[in-house]
Specification:
- The protein is of the alpha+beta class.
- The protein has 2 domains: 41 residues, Single Sheet (Ubiquitin Ligase Nedd4, Chain: W), CATH 2.20.70.10; 151 residues, Nucleoside Triphosphate Pyrophosphohydrolase.
- Helices cover 17% and strands 34% of the residues.
- The strands form 2 sheets. Strands 4, 5, 6, 7, 8, 9, 10, 11 and 12 form a 9-stranded mixed β-sheet that branches. The protein has a 3-stranded antiparallel β-sheet with strand order 1-2-3, covered by helices on one side.
- A hairpin with a 4-residue loop joins β8 and β9.
- It is elongated.
- The two termini are 27 Å apart.
Length: 207
């Protein structure tokens, strides 16, 4: 979900302590030579710490016209409903991460080839990129929830828990998904998300 995450503990400890994790000399926050952004960099060896976005995957699973969501058992967004997903690990592709997260949270196993891109979203406020896949099951599978989910359910558009969705600003994306399911024609969305807003561009992408 949208949340901060430390991706390189050794590097971050060095930064917070004010020392370079490569040479041990003082770190500073300034614009490195040839750059145009302030970054943590070493005054001695020139090492630069790039604070690149982390990647999160989500999986929209549809069966019998219903969308699978879980109620989150952990923060952030504890007790809110969301589609399964989580962070991509080191040495892991986005599709493998999606397969893993879906199985960990719901017990449902799909293959990488079952995943089709649905949303690619930038969340600048949390320095994250979200890659959302869709997949179809013939029937609503029995769920075997992991520790990150306190509940799980298959919802139609009519009974979807809108008042308890993890990010209300993304509810239009839920409606778009159900529209695509009903029409049998999907699109690929490139989006900018925040806690309070969403801007989409849609491209025909029916696979």
């Amino acid at each position: 979900m949208i949340a901060a995450r430390i991706t390189n503990l050794t590097d971050c400890v060095g930064e917070l302590a004010g020392f370079c994790f490569q040479c041990g000399k003082a770190m500073r926050r300034s614009v490195p030579p040839g750059d145009d952004h302030e970054r943590w960099n070493c005054s001695a060896c020139g090492y630069v710490r790039y604070e690149n976005p982390t990647v999160v995957v989500l999986v929209a699973v549809e069966a019998e016209g219903r969308l699978l969501v879980i109620r989150r058992a952990l923060e952030p967004y504890k007790a809110r409903w969301a589609v399964p997903g989580g962070f991509v690990e080191r040495d892991e592709s986005v599709t493998l991460a999606a397969v893993r997260e879906l199985e960990e949270e719901t017990g449902i196993r799909v293959e990488e080839d079952d995943l089709i891109p649905l949303f690619i979203a930038s969340v600048v406020s949390t320095n994250q990129i979200y890659v959302t896949f869709r997949t179809h099951l013939k029937t609503c599978a029995t769920l075997h929830l992991g520790i990150e989910a306190s509940d799980g359910a298959w919802y139609t558009r009519e009974d979807f828990p809108r008042d308890e969705f993890w990010l209300p600003a993304l509810l239009p994306a839920v409606d778009d998904f159900f529209d695509c399911v009903a029409a049998g024609h999907f699109k690929l969305y490139v989006s900018d998300w925040s806690e309070t807003s969403m801007h989409n561009r849609a491209f025909d992408f029916n696979v």
